[in-house]
């Protein structure tokens, strides 16, 4: 009875609790399902359209208009449409204004300086450049453009009543007079204070270079002086008396050095020739013929260069001597294997020509004993070697298909001879 009563009391409570819990569970289940199907916001390179738009805004404020345009285009592409059309239009307008301002600035401030005058203290007393007048321009519009260029802004951002505009207009009228401008004419435009200061600083540095170059020249450092002279930043210092004096002194020093170097070069060349002529006799023709030729040819070239340095003929005698030596050295040709190529002239016998070749190669006369048969054993070594030499010459001619008898008989003919290397037959 007690259990039944308790069950009767608990049952309504359980039902009541189930009525509360089940809707809650159902709501939670619906919420989870909804969160699972929720659409994520679109992104490009990890950023939403709003984040790209914010980057574009920051870049535009910093004047980085190219970046701003890129960012806003990216923001537009995240969710294609026209949600950023206004921002895109404003950035493009800002880019156009900046481009026009930069073009005007370059035109008015980056042309060559047409006139500059420095005071005694080195500061700029007056300076201007010239610009070409465009359609619709006046001294007043030029004044506003100049102020805008100095501030690196567009002309629209400079108020007409700006004090700087009035001051610039006064400077323009002082340079050009109060008048109407003609399209295409060249008018004077004053330089900004910063430009004048830069010119004054450059002028001061150039004068310091003049002083330093003069000191270097006085110490004999011609190259250092020339380097400093070549480092001038502007052309203003070049018009001064100090610079003209430096240029004259530098030119004289360079000329003097050139003359001195030429004389030194001339002496060196002549000394080289003298040394070469002293070396040649000690070089055996038989083994160093090509070296002798090179040395003598080099001596002729050196003498020619030495004469050219002074434009005279002061070494003609020496050149004539070298030419004779070279001619003698070129009488015959010695091949790599020691064979000698010689030309036999008319009226000279084969043996006479061959003997001249041998003595030319050996640089001495062949020794004669005056002995003959039957005292052949008393002949000199040269005479015995000469007999062997002629025998081998005849044998070599036969190998080449040359009639040696014809060679011996061709006394009245010009004949080219190819003779064996004499060194292998004749001892010193």
Q: How would you characterize the overall build of this protein?
A:
The protein has 14 helices and six strands. The chain has helices at 2-37, 49-61, 65-78, 85-109, 139-151, 163-176, 193-218, 222-229, 241-279, 285-310, 316-329, 350-362, 381-399, 404-409, and strands spanning 113-118, 124-132, 186-190, 333-334, 340-344, 415-419. The strands form two sheets. The protein has a three-stranded antiparallel β-sheet with strand order 1-2-3, sandwiched between helices. A three-stranded antiparallel β-sheet has the order 4-5-6. Helix 10 packs antiparallel against helix 11 (316-329). The relative contact order is 0.04. Mean pLDDT is 85; it is low at 1-26 and 28-38.
Structural key phrases:
3-stranded antiparallel sheet, 6 strands, elongated, 428 residues, mainly alpha, 14 helices
**Strand-and-helix sequence, N→C?**
HHHHEEHHEHHHHHEEHHHE
Shape: elongated
**Share of helical residues:** 55-70%
Strand count, sense and barrel status of the largest sheet are: 3 strands, antiparallel
- Through-space gap between termini: 159 Å
| Average pLDDT number | 85
Q: Quick one: how many beta strands?
A: 6
Q: What topology, given as strand order, has the largest sheet?
A: 1-2-3
Uncertain segments are 1-26, 28-38
The helix tally amounts to 14
